C-alpha cells in the first residue's frame, strides 16, 4: 500500500474515533511564541517535548536548517504574520547539532537534480535568469553560526516590532538538550 493510501485509511479512523479532540486549540499561540526550526525528522516530537511546547502553544515554522535565506521571503513573512496577526510576542530560532544543511554541497545536489531527470536546459535557463543555483543550494558551515545568522536577520528586520525578543538555541537531536546561543532579553537590555 502506498503512503497516501495509508494516510487516508488512518485518517478515516482518526476522525471516526474523534482522536482530534485531544488537539483542539486556539489559532493563537498560548505561549505567544514563534519558533523557527529545522525540518529534521528527529525534531518532530523531540523539540516540542524538550521545550515543553504542547499543541496550540506556539507557531512553529520548519524549513531546511532553520535558515532565513532572504529577509523578504516566505519564512520571514511567516514570522511577521505570527507577530502581527497571531498575537505572538517572541521569536526563537532553534537549530540542531548534526544538521544536514551544514554539510549540503551545491555541486552534489545539482548532480542529483540532473540524475533524477531535470533537463540541463532547465538548469541553464535558471542560470541565465539570474538564479545562482550554487549559492541558493549551498548549506552553511556551522550549525551555531547558522542560528545566529537567522537571529540577526530577524532582529534587524525593518518590519520587526520594536522590543520583540529574538532568541537563538541549538538542540541535541539525540538527547533534546538545549543550548542558549542568543538571549533576546539581554540583547534588548543592551539596546535600551
Automatic annotation (TrEMBL):
User: InterPro entries under this entry?
Assistant: Carbonic_anhydrase (IPR001765), Carbonic_anhydrase_sf (IPR036874)
Q: Where does Zn(2+) bind?
A: 38, 40, 96, 99
Keywords tagged on the record: Metal-binding, Zinc
Q: Which domain of life is it from?
A: Bacteria
Q: What is its EC number?
A: 4.2.1.1
Keyword Zinc among UniProt keywords = yes
The UniProt note on the cofactor reads as follows:
Binds 1 zinc ion per subunit.
Name the chemical reaction catalysed here. hydrogencarbonate + H(+) = CO2 + H2O
Instruction: Name the coenzymes or cofactors required.
Output: Zn(2+)
Question: Single GO molecular-function term?
Answer: zinc ion binding
Similarity comment: Belongs to the beta-class carbonic anhydrase family.
The protein's name is carbonic anhydrase
Tell me the classification of the organism that encodes this protein. Answer: Bacteria, Bacillati, Bacillota, Bacilli, Bacillales
Amino acid at each position: 500500500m502506498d503512503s497516501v493510501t495509508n494516510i487516508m485509511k488512518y485518517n478515516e479512523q482518526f476522525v471516526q474515533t474523534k482522536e482530534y479532540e485531544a488537539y483542539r486549540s486556539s489559532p493563537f499561540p498560548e505561549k505567544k511564541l514563534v519558533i523557527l526550526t529545522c525540518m529534521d525528522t528527529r525534531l518532530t516530537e523531540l523539540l516540542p517535548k524538550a521545550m515543553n511546547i504542547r499543541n496550540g502553544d506556539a507557531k512553529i515554522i520548519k524549513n531546511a536548517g532553520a535558515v532565513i535565506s532572504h529577509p523578504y521571503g516566505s519564512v520571514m513573512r511567516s514570522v511577521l504574520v505570527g507577530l502581527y496577526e497571531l498575537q505572538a510576542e517572541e521569536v526563537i530560532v532553534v537549530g540542531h547539532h548534526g544538521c544536514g544543511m551544514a554539510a549540503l554541497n551545491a555541486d552534489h545536489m545539482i548532480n542529483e537534480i540532473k540524475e533524477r531527470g531535470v533537463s540541463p536546459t532547465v538548469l541553464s535557463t535558471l542560470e541565465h535568469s539570474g538564479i545562482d543555483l550554487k549559492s541558493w543550494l549551498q548549506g552553511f558551515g556551522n550549525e551555531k553560526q547558522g542560528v545566529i545568522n537567522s537571529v540577526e536577520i530577524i532582529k534587524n528586520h525593518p518590519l520587526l516590532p520594536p522590543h520583540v525578543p529574538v532568541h537563538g538555541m541549538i538542540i541535541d537531536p539525540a538527547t533534546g538538550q538545549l543550548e542558549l546561543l542568543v538571549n533576546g532579553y539581554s540583547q534588548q537590555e543592551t539596546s535600551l
